[in-house]
Automatic annotation (TrEMBL):
Keywords: 4Fe-4S, DNA damage, DNA repair, DNA-binding, Endonuclease, Glycosidase, Hydrolase, Iron, Iron-sulfur, Lyase, Metal-binding, Nuclease. Its cofactor is [4Fe-4S] cluster. GO terms for biological process: base-excision repair, AP site formation. [4Fe-4S] cluster binds at C188, C195, C198, C204. Residues 38-186 form the HhH-GPD domain. Pfam families: EndIII_4Fe-2S, HHH, HhH-GPD. DNA repair enzyme that has both DNA N-glycosylase activity and AP-lyase activity. The DNA N-glycosylase activity releases various damaged pyrimidines from DNA by cleaving the N-glycosidic bond, leaving an AP (apurinic/apyrimidinic) site. The AP-lyase activity cleaves the phosphodiester bond 3' to the AP site by a beta-elimination, leaving a 3'-terminal unsaturated sugar and a product with a terminal 5'-phosphate. Its EC number is 4.2.99.18. GO terms for molecular function: 4 iron, 4 sulfur cluster binding; class I DNA-(apurinic or apyrimidinic site) endonuclease activity; DNA binding; DNA N-glycosylase activity; metal ion binding. It catalyses: 2'-deoxyribonucleotide-(2'-deoxyribose 5'-phosphate)-2'-deoxyribonucleotide-DNA = a 3'-end 2'-deoxyribonucleotide-(2,3-dehydro-2,3-deoxyribose 5'-phosphate)-DNA + a 5'-end 5'-phospho-2'-deoxyribonucleoside-DNA + H(+). This is Endonuclease III. HAMAP family: Nth.
Length: 224
């Protein structure tokens, strides 16, 4: 993909979603880490409903350790995989206290050592909490990147991340990450993308295919 096409994609998304941002509600790096951990296979909307009370009850890593695991499980039971996530949270909090003096580490390399924290979570935390450029590849980012040809159909999540980092200017990584999410969440949805009104249809492999299929169905109907 040529640089001009990448620029076209970035500028178009920028015009569509100039205020794109992290939708997980948090007030510090620690809360953001917990929120992103909870968001795996769960919507940000549900996470925000749960963390509204959770972050009032638990203010520090020690607070999460001081309660029985069963109590924490009940506090997050509306979240998918809540039992595993409760275990991860308590283990994460112990490590933060024992190895990082009670503060969430600031580097990607240290963050991924925490239980329940993978590349995506670490990228979200460093970029949003510590303003270090990063691209976190979630389901929306992966889908949009592949549909628009920024990555290959068979690329792994890591390969998608590396290709986006190579094609997008570093100082635009974080804002592009948010715009890719907004574009995928509110426009280029998994099941019902808005191809017919999409300003990026000219570069979208998936959109062109869908529009061609739609036209073929119309042609057959008219013939019949």
């Amino acid at each position: 993909m040529v640089a001009a096409t990448v620029r076209h994609i970035l500028d178009t998304m920028g015009n569509m979603f100039p205020e794109a941002h992290c939708e997980l509600i948090h007030s510090n790096a620690f809360e953001l880490t917990i929120a992103v951990l909870l968001s795996a296979q769960c919507t940000d909307e549900t996470v925000n409903k749960v963390t509204k009370d959770l972050f009032q009850k638990y203010r520090s890593p020690q607070d999460y350790i001081d309660v029985p695991l069963e109590e924490l499980e009940q506090d997050i039971r509306r979240i998918g995989l809540f039992r595993n996530k409760a275990k991860h949270i308590q283990s994460l909090c112990r490590m933060v206290i024992d190895q990082f003096e009670g503060d969430v580490p600031r580097t990607h390399e240290q963050l991924v050592l925490l239980p329940g924290v993978g590349r995506k979570t670490a990228n979200v935390v460093v970029s949003n909490a510590f303003e270090i450029p990063a691209i976190a590849v979630d389901t929306h980012v992966e889908r949009v990147a592949k549909r628009l040809g920024l990555a290959g159909w068979n690329d792994s999540v890591l390969e998608v991340e590396k290709k986006l980092m190579k094609k997008i200017p570093r100082d635009e990584w974080t804002e592009t990450h948010h715009r890719l999410i907004f574009f995928g969440r509110y426009h280029c949805k998994a099941q019902n993308p808005q191809c017919e009104v999409c300003p990026l249809l000219d570069v979208c492999r998936e959109g062109k295919k869908r529009m061609k299929m739609t036209q073929n169905r119309k042609d057959k109907k008219n013939i019949g």
